[in-house]
């Protein structure tokens, strides 16, 4: 299917149409997964990779989440040992990027060990 494409744009559009289900139920399922996601026993890095995967899937499905929402919701699934840094992140006047959040959380996880 993709091999018959004449241009990279055409190939991308074929892949996007093939894999990016834009149905409302898919989007709602991804949002529910994001809201209910918890780190459990996995590392902060693995947890954040899962978050980024959901963000990417939502974007492909045509409903990219707002950075502020992602950054403010991500600490919810970290557990009580991250309570202090979560409060500091939420208390900022300017919301940080997801990449900055990742750096801070991984650094804090190292501090806890």
TrEMBL record:
Alphabetized Pfam families for the sequence: Retrotran_gag_2
PANTHER family, per the entry: PTHR47481, RETROTRANSPOSON GAG DOMAIN-CONTAINING PROTEIN
Name assigned to this protein: Uncharacterized protein
Annotated source species: Dipteronia dyeriana
